[in-house]
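Lab notebook, bench 4. The sequencing result for the construct came back, and we need a structural model before the next group meeting so we can plan mutations. Quick request posted to the team channel:

Model the 3D structure of this chain.
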Amino acid sequence: MKELLKHIIFDQREKDISQMIERNIDMSCVNNPEVLVISGIRRCGKSVLLQQIRSQQSEQDFYMNFDDERLINFKVDDFQTLYEAFIELFGEQKTFYFDEIQNIPGWERFVRRLHDSGCKVFVTGSNANMLSRELGTHLTGRYC
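Done. Here's the predicted structure in token form:
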């Protein structure tokens, strides 16, 4: 699984956002230590906004788009393996970018663990999943 994850990480590494419409970003949310949740309807630009934020950060390597069909069998238990793959590829970093994370049931627990250990986490997902009771239960007071 780790080798597959490393391959996917490299495949997803470069996103060309030069042709995208640049958005005005509220830097108070970006610089806030809480988890930044970008939610909205499909095709509204969440991923582009995440890439724009990522391009402005010093740590950019810990990125995964969970809308990749190769991750169809990814489970919450695999997050630790993903974390280890990131470290093996890029060394220690404290900033994570997870696109379409709602595709992985139970993701909130891993994000909470990252946040509680001092990491900055950016996530995107659809409204129905991102605003669920589960998000509030597991990330209460930890996201903006």
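DSSP finds seven helices and four strands in the chain.
Will bring this to the meeting.
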